[in-house]
Specification:
Elements: H1 9-45, H2 53-58, H3 64-74, H4 80-92, H5 106-142, H6 149-164, H7 167-181, H8 197-223, H9 226-233, H10 238-275, H11 281-290, H12 294-322, H13 324-327
Helix pairs in contact: 1-12, 5-8, 5-10, 6-8, 7-8, 7-10, 8-10, 9-10, 10-11, 10-12, 11-12
């Protein structure tokens, strides 16, 4: 009868150490492939538009000479493979094209508008986390083991309703109540700290409701774990059990969803910025679509898409650092 021999500690350590390089290569490869697909889709966008995109952008009254000159300056008269190579080469040096309407480099417009969008999305994400994590923990503790069924039902119903409201409709309601009726807060522009309040609330309430439900569910599972029961048997204070023992073990799933919510918040700024006349990329892309400024639309889509992909990659890396067993060790 043979007995299993445990592998030497050195071999185990080497196996664990080799996981990180493989993880980094996998995630980097996925990111590069996703970026290539995004860039290719953005390039094809302008070529899939029916008719002549330059004529469409300049309008029917533009002269044939002006249209021809603009097509030549955009490189649209070259063969498609040549245009694609030139497009990739331009992106590598930071050339995102030139706006048809303003004749400004698209990267200059993005550089001016991006900080407003980034600050709005990050503040909304921080606000959502600050609301949802304490709320989820409190609801889990209050409704543990079937207690306070009415409170649980009210929380579940209200969170589902809030998360189902589109953020731009919530923004319109906030403008009508707090901006127009009560006159408490500004409703348009980026004029100071108070101008952030309404758009941040409009962006963050829905994600906060979703995240609070996830935190509650994860906390309920952790509160019944053996190590939490051991902490109770040691008569540790309730706040210490909940905050230092249970909460850190419940945040992994919440962090995963939180990263996805941050990506959705970035995309959600497109409509919310237009509700509040916010001078960011969201209002820029809508204006570019309305004026048929396709190079500007192309560049803005690239920035939004790349931002979401990078956020997801960063979340994967953070999750791997917090719990290597679930992410780094996957094949």
């Amino acid at each position: 009868m043979s007995t299993a021999v445990a592998p030497p500690r050195e071999e185990v350590r080497r196996a664990r150490d080799s996981r990180w390089p493989r993880f980094i290569l996998r995630r980097t490869g996925r990111l590069l492939v996703s970026l290539w697909i995004l860039v290719t889709a953005a390039f094809l966008m302008i070529h899939l538009i029916p008719g002549d995109p330059v004529r469409t952008a300049l309008g029917p009254t533009a002269s044939a000479e002006l249209v021809a000159a603009k097509r030549e300056s955009l490189g649209l008269n070259d063969p498609l493979p040549v245009q694609y190579i030139d497009y990739l080469r331009g992106l590598l040096v930071g050339d995102f094209g030139t706006s048809i309407q303003s004749n400004l480099p698209a990267i200059d417009v993005i550089t001016v508008r991006l900080p407003a969008t980034a600050s709005l999305a990050l503040l909304a994400f921080a606000f959502a986390v600050v609301i949802s994590v304490p709320l989820g923990v409190i609801m889990a503790v209050a409704t543990r083991r079937g207690r306070r069924r009415k409170l649980e039902l009210g929380f579940a119903t209200s969170s589902v309703l809030v998360s189902a409201i589109p953020d731009f409709l919530l923004g319109v309601a906030l403008v009508a109540v707090f901006g127009v009726s009560l006159g408490w807060l500004p409703i348009a522009g980026r004029s100071g700290p108070e101008s952030y309040i309404l758009p941040v609330i409009a962006l963050s309430l829905g994600p906060a409701a979703v995240l609070a439900r996830i935190v509650r569910v994860e906390m309920l599972g952790v509160l019944e774990a053996d190590f939490v029961r051991t902490a109770r048997a040691k008569r540790l204070p309730a706040w210490r059990i909940h905050l230092t023992h249970a909460l850190p073990n419940a945040v992994t799933a919440a962090l995963t969803l939180g990263g996805l919510l941050l990506g959705s918040l970035v995309v959600g700024t497109v409509l919310v910025e237009n509700v509040f006349a916010w001078p960011g990329l969201g209002s820029t892309i809508v204006s570019a679509i309305q004026t048929k400024d396709y190079p500007m639309v192309q560049a803005t889509v690239l920035v939004y898409g790349a931002g979401v992909l990078i956020i997801n990659t960063v979340v994967d890396a953070v999750l791997a650092a917090l719990d290597p067993r679930t992410t780094v060790g996957e094949h």
